[in-house]
Structure formats: C-alpha cells, structure tokens
Design goal:
The protein has about 325 residues and is of the alpha/beta class. It has one domain: Type I PLP-dependent aspartate aminotransferase-like (Major domain) (Aspartate Aminotransferase, domain 2, 3-Layer(aba) Sandwich), CATH 3.40.640.10. Helices cover about 40% and strands about 15% of the residues. It has eleven helices and eleven strands. It has helices at about 5-10, 35-50, 60-80, 95-110, 125-130, 155-160, 180-190, 210-215, 240-245, 280-295, 295-320; strands at about 15-20, 20, 85-90, 115-120, 140-145, 165-170, 195-200, 220, 235, 255-260, 265. Helix 2 (about 35-50) packs antiparallel against helix 10 and helix 3 (about 60-80) packs parallel to helix 10 (about 280-295). The chain is flat. The mean pLDDT is about 95. Bound molecules: pyridoxal-5'-phosphate (PLP).
C-alpha cells in the first residue's frame, strides 16, 4: 500500500524523543504534522519570493502572487469546485464558518428563522451562529444522535419547516469519528430550498471531497489538519452565494474603488480576503495537497482505521469498565 518508513522519514518531528522514547503522535484530529517539503516551501518563499501579493508590478511580487493563485487553482481541483473564484482563503475552518454566519446569515436571516445543526458539532460550528443571535433572533436547532453516535435521520427530516433557513453540519465528527451522510442531508435540505454549509475540517484528510458531487453550498476546512501550514483555511462557496454576500472585513485587496463618500467592492474571492493574506503559507499548502495525493487519502484513512480498531480492541480487553463513545460503522 505504502512504505511507512518512507512516510515517517518525511516528518522531521518524528526523529525527536519525549520521555526518552521516540515520539508517537496520534493527535491528528487536532493538528497533523508537517512533511519536510512543506516547511522547505515556506523557507523558499521567505528566502526567494517574499513580496506582497496582488499589488506589486515588479517580478518578485508577481512570482509571489502566482504561487498563491496557483494554490487557489490547486484547491479548486482538489475539492472539485466549478470555478477558482469559489475558493476563499481564510485563517482556518473557524474563520470560514464565522464569515458565512456574519455575511450570509447577517444578510439573509430574519427574526424567527431556524438553523439546523447537530449535537456533534465543534464549537466552531455552534458559537458563530450564536454570535449572530445578537443581530437577528434566529434559533439553533440541534439534531440528536443515536446510541452509536449517528445523526437521527428521521428527526433531521422532520425538523424542516417554513422557518428553516440554513443547515450547518460537520462532515466527520472530531469527537466521535462518525462520518455523516452529508450528501443525503444536503439533498433533503435542498428539497426544502435550504442551503447547507459542511464543516469539512476532519473529512478532507480522510476522503476524497467533491463539492459539486455533494452539491454543498459552502464547505470549510483547515490546512493544518491536512499536513499543511497553520494559519490557512479554505471556504468554498457556490459563486451565486458568494456574489450575493457582502464583505466580511474591510481593508486592502477587497475593494474595487474607494472614496470617502462611497466604496465599491471587488468580486469574489478577493471581496472576502481583506488585508495581506498569509501568502507564504498559502503557497506552501500546495505541497501538502501533493503529499496527500501521493500517499492517497484512502490509504491514510485505512491505516487510521486499523490503528483505531487495534486501540479499541486493546482498551476493551485490558481496561475494565471502559466505554467507547462513537461506535458508528461509518467512521
Ligand atoms: C470538526 C471541526 N470543525 C472545526 C474545527 C476548527 O478548526 P480550526 O481550529 O482549524 O479553525 C475543528 C478543529 O478541531 C474541527 O475538528
């Protein structure tokens, strides 16, 4: 399938020891480690192509811009988006969801509207909707789970009513490992005319994502959970939604024309990327996607499943009274 020693050798951190033993790192759900090529790309950017993007007419600035924009195209291909304008760079999944809550929610939600989530959401997909409640009186409606830690689909179906305005659910749970049937959940929401945001933070490094096949309206994820640099995330949005949304923050890059009387805004994606982006890390993110493709997300998922089964078996056999939460077969 793959050579584990070859893969290990690409991660310098695994050469260190902790408590006089070789480091074993299993916290990929929180953040994954970074292969050498990604760090080398960051170093190369700082040493050779550091100049601000989208504004300089000199060659180094253009090189930096090309590297950043090549990553946008790389992400577009990686998740099967229809257009590169649908890829917005953010600081991470958290900022991507906050952006949608503040701009889409702030524009299109009205008092009395309901947003469906699940009880397995990360705080990043709960609190942004609650913050919005200070602007519009929306209700958050969490779908419950069954004893295996799976979404109760009958309950989900029954929650749609005339007030349902939006669905925001995780693709894979960071707590339970459950993979939600998001394609089906999107299709049910769309049959009621309701758009859906998928929090893909835990899914992108474990399965092939095709946003068009899923028909997701928004899809959010973080580079640092995909063997990429910290400080970079992606918000995918269907162009029709992005074009209808106001800017998230004001500043450089996101404007068309500025005067003291009136400012007009750039088209997506730049409309949502105010200020100097993290162009060094964005450029290096491409190398992380190369790594993922080389090893194969399916292989990564299979290896992790094997480790999980091994750990689960040993825990049940050797720790009396242990109870495992999240026993869905969809994980
Ligand atoms: C499911 C899920 N959503 C959102 C996040 C937030 O990601 P970030 O901290 O990279 O913005 C995480 C991080 O653990 C997560 O697991």
């Amino acid at each position: 399938m793959f050579d584990i020693n070859d893969i290990r050798s690409q991660f310098p951190i695994l050469e260190r020891s902790v408590y006089n033993r070789p480091l074993v790192y299993l916290d990929n759900a929180a953040t994954s480690q970074t292969p050498r090529r990604v760090v080398e790309a960051i170093e190369k950017s700082y040493f050779e192509t550091k100049a601000n993007v989208h504004r300089g007419v000199f060659s180094v600035s253009q090189e930096a811009t090309e590297l950043m924009e090549a990553t946008r195209t790389r992400v577009q291909k990686y998740i099967g988006a229809a257009a590169r304008e649908e890829i917005i760079f953010t600081r991470g999944t958290t900022e991507a969801i906050n952006l949608v809550a503040a701009t889409y929610g702030g524009t299109f939600f009205h008092d009395g509207d309901e947003v469906i989530v699940t009880v397995m959401e990360h705080h990043a997909n709960i609190v942004p909707w609650q913050l919005l409640q200070s602007r519009v009186k929306i209700t958050l409606r969490p779908v419950s789970l069954n004893e295996k830690g799976e979404v109760n689909m009958d309950e989900y179906r029954s929650m749609f009513n005339a007030n349902t305005k939006f669905v925001a659910v995780c693709h894979t749970s960071n707590v339970l490992g459950t993979i939600n049937p998001v394609k089906e959940m999107i299709s049910i929401a769309h049959s009621h005319g309701v758009p859906v945001l998928i929090d893909g933070a835990q899914a992108v490094a474990h399965e092939r994502i095709d946003v068009q096949e899923l028909d997701a309206d928004f899809y959010a994820f973080s580079s640092h959970k995909m063997y990429g640099p910290t400080g970079v995330g992606v918000l995918y949005g269907k162009l029709k939604h992005l074009q209808a949304m106001p800017p998230y923050q004001g500043g450089g890059e996101m404007i068309d024309q500025v005067s003291f009387e009136k400012t007009t805004f750039a088209e997506p994606p730049l409309r949502f990327e105010a200020g100097t982006p993290d162009f060094v890390d964005i450029a290096a993110f491409s190398l992380a996607m190369d790594f993922l493709e080389e090893v194969g997300v399916e292989n990564i998922a299979a290896h992790e499943r094997e480790l999980t089964q091994y750990a689960t078996r040993r825990m049940i056999e050797e720790i009396p009274g242990v109870r495992i939460f999240g026993t869905s077969e969809y994980k």
